[in-house]
């Protein structure tokens, strides 16, 4: 993995405005952990992933007595509680939807068929008593959010830029390390001072990065 070469950035080149800089309102120390040692200069774009994720299902006050099988949690999952709700029923069958901790529907599934969506995977098994509409389960997802240099081809969630480094850091070990970042707005940054991995090599891919920052309230300026 390589990083696009450029002169060392300064904080003033990157951040043009932020709300309450004296209190660090828009900044946060994030935990960085990479497979190999990296250098993080001002403006380095980071993505985040869920490490050590695990999920535990709890049945609601259900009529059906089917159960959620083993849960696999990927790096794209969210911390918090997902909800599974039965939407249609049938003999030894049924359909359900899964809603993530933000309240967004991340997938539809069927009883007895492997489900994958929103970063979690499992199979809802049929029981001796069929489910009825409204039966539900909660799935509590735990783990640790860690950051790494965003790479466009990453599949663990870190392809989505979620932070910009605001201080220079030398080569870091592969153990957990704290790095100060701009993680939210209101703030404005210079596009030219954002340091992207070389895998973001098209205008469209870079535009996705800038759009991700905008959703965090970080306005990307085209002027220096």
Structural class by helix and strand composition: mainly beta
| Tertiary shape | elongated
Q: Could you report the average pLDDT, rounded to the nearest whole number? A: 93
Radius of gyration: 21 Å
Number of domains: 2
Order the strands across the largest sheet as they lie in space.
2-12-11-3-10-5-6-7
Unreliable runs: 1-7
What is the tally of helical segments?
Answer: 2
One letter per element, helices H and strands E, the order comes to HEEEEEEEEEEEEEHE
- CATH fold assignment of the largest domain: Virus Head Decoration Protein, Chain: A
Topology overview:
Blueprint: H1 11-14, E1 15-18, E2 27-32, E3 45-59, E4 72-73, E5 80-90, E6 93-99, E7 105-110, E8 114-117, E9 120-123, E10 136-149, E11 161-165, E12 177-182, E13 187-190, H2 203-215, E14 218-221
Parallel strand pairs: 13-14
Antiparallel strand pairs: 1-13, 2-12, 3-10, 3-11, 4-9, 5-6, 5-10, 6-7, 8-9, 11-12
Describe, in plain words, how this protein is organized in 3D.
The protein contains two helices and 14 strands. With 224 residues, it is mostly beta strands. The protein has two domains: 11-49 and 144-221, Head decoration protein D (Virus Head Decoration Protein, Chain: A, Beta Barrel), CATH 2.40.300.10; 51-143, no CATH class. It has an eight-stranded antiparallel β-sheet with strand order 2-12-11-3-10-5-6-7. Strands 1-13-14 form a three-stranded mixed β-sheet. The protein is elongated. Residues 1-7 have low confidence and may be disordered.
């Amino acid at each position: 993995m390589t990083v696009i070469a450029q002169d060392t950035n300064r904080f003033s080149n990157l951040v043009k405005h932020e709300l309450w800089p004296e209190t660090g309102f828009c900044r946060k120390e994030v935990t960085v952990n990479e497979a190999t040692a990296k250098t993080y200069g001002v403006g380095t774009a980071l993505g985040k992933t869920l490490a050590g994720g695990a999920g535990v299902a709890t049945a609601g006050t259900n009529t059906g007595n089917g159960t959620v099988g083993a849960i696999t949690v990927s790096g794209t999952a969210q911390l918090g509680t997902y909800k599974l709700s039965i939407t249609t029923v049938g003999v030894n069958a049924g359909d359900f939807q899964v809603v993530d901790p933000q309240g967004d529907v991340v997938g539809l599934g069927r009883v007895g068929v492997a489900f994958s969506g929103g970063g979690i995977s499992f199979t809802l098994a049929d029981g001796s008593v069929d489910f009825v509409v409204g039966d539900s389960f909660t799935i509590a997802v735990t783990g640790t959010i860690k950051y790494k240099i965003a790479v466009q081809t990453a599949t663990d969630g870190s392809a989505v830029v979620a932070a910009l480094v605001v201080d220079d850091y030398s080569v870091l070990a592969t153990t957990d390390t704290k790095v100060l970042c701009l993680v939210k707005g209101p703030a404005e940054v210079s596009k030219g001072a954002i340091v992207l991995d070389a895998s973001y090599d098209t205008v469209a891919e870079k535009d996705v990065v800038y759009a991700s920052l905008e959703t965090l309230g970080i306005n990307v300026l085209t002027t220096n």
